[in-house]
Amino acid sequence: MHIGILTISFSLPGCGSLKEKRQRMGGIHERFGRSPSVAVCESGERDKHDASEWSFVVVAPSRREIESQCSQIEDKILRTVDGRVMNVIREFI
Fold first, then answer.
1. Mean pLDDT, to the nearest integer, of 30-54?
2. Does the pLDDT at position 65 exceed 90?
3. Region of residue 14 (phi > 0: left; psi between -120 and 50: alpha; otherwise: beta)
4. Sheet strands side by side (includes 38-44)
5. CATH code of the region 2-92
6. Which of 7, 6, 4 is nearest to 52 (CA)?
7. pTM listed for this prediction
């Protein structure tokens, strides 16, 4: 079994409140947390209005499958989140 960690940092220009931040991040936890092979959490910048960091832990039988799932997560994030992706880190255990 292989484990991958995908961490994505966002900039949310013009975001003025934590409520607006939750709306702009668009339910990441609900969308990606449904998969039995993916765990997701807001891992940083929790108290900032204009920034956010999310981590996704992916478990799969092969590194190739993890890389594929991480790419799918990134693509979907880029299409759905109202913010700029500032940094993407992929780690494999």
1. 85
2. yes
3. left
4. 38-44, 51-60, 2-11, 84-92
5. 3.30.70.1120
6. 7
7. 0.87
